[in-house]
Amino acid sequence: MSLLEIDDLSVTYESPDGPLQALRNVSLRLEKGEVLGLVGESGSGKSTLVSALLMLLPDNVRTSGRLGWHGNDLLALPTPARRQLRGNGIATVSQDPFTALNPVVTIGKQLVAFQHHKAGSRREKQTRAVSMLERVGISDPAGRMKQYPHELSGGIRQRIAIAAALLTEPELLIADEPTTALDATTEMQVVELLNASRRLVDGAIIFVTHDLHLVSSLCDKVAVMYAGEIIETGPCREVFASPLHPYTRALLACDPARIDTPTRELPFIAGSVPVPGMERVGCPFQPRCSEAFAPCERVNPPAIFSADGARMVCCHKGIKHA
Ligand code: ATP
Ligand code: MG
Prior knowledge:
By secondary structure, the protein is α/β, with parallel strands linked by helices. 31% of the residues lie in helices and 23% in strands. Strands 6-7-8-3-9-10-12-11 form an 8-stranded mixed β-sheet, with helices on both faces. A 4-stranded antiparallel β-sheet has the order 2-1-4-5, with helices on one face.
């Protein structure tokens, strides 16, 4: 049994303009010790998948499929069991560290509260918090414990948010675009910290980002999302060396870090993503795909796996580029 087993997960938001399907039959496996990069353009459904995993989907959604975690289907769990799991097992670091931290409570009190389900006295939890702040590279940790979030820079706040997540000793740490709000230097420091966090998480990490370069430096596996579907997965090294899906190839061609001859204009993928609420026929990428042929207009390609099962692509051209 894998640590995380997602099977045919679909999520539809009920909006005033009608139903909007944000995830379509998403299936994914994550093993203990793996770091997965989840990439895709804005609106592709990355945060919806994360919210489903964190059991934080809003009330206006319909879900189907299975979210298997330790043999339980998270979608079918009763509310008290969900609450328990939220603070104990799956932790998150979000784009905006302010959302993780209470503005009117000192860092010290919050870091103790994050350990509410752990054994030990208040003093022991304080000691654990100080040592975690040290481990995430914060100087004068005892002094920081007495401060409020607004007294700290964005980079320090994000480090504290990571420390808070790690203090819960999660088996799954989900970082949803954790560096987007930071300047370039601080971003690199936080990326290094996330990389080091691998050793502190006895489980797996999902790293959500637009930045393919970050994925290639941090992750073992990558899942590429397009318009609510996972259209390619595989080991990072293989996917970046020989992408199978035309969308993955196009994304890589747009990555500034991979362009040999810098030009003034960044390449971009022509056309736009399907309108989320619209009925779909055929492959969702077909209108933008330079390699599309007749079947792509009519049939949404099923998942095709490599012989060893490590790679998957949803493309009628199949696995032949590997
Ligand atoms: P980004 O890279 O911009 O963060 P994303 O890949 O995380 O994008 P989601 O936020 O999961 O994408 O959004 C997927 C689709 O679901 C989008 O069309 C979005 O407008 C829609 N959506 C997200 N949250 C809600 C909501 N609470 N109610 C209705 N629609 C929503
Ligand atoms: Mg998002």
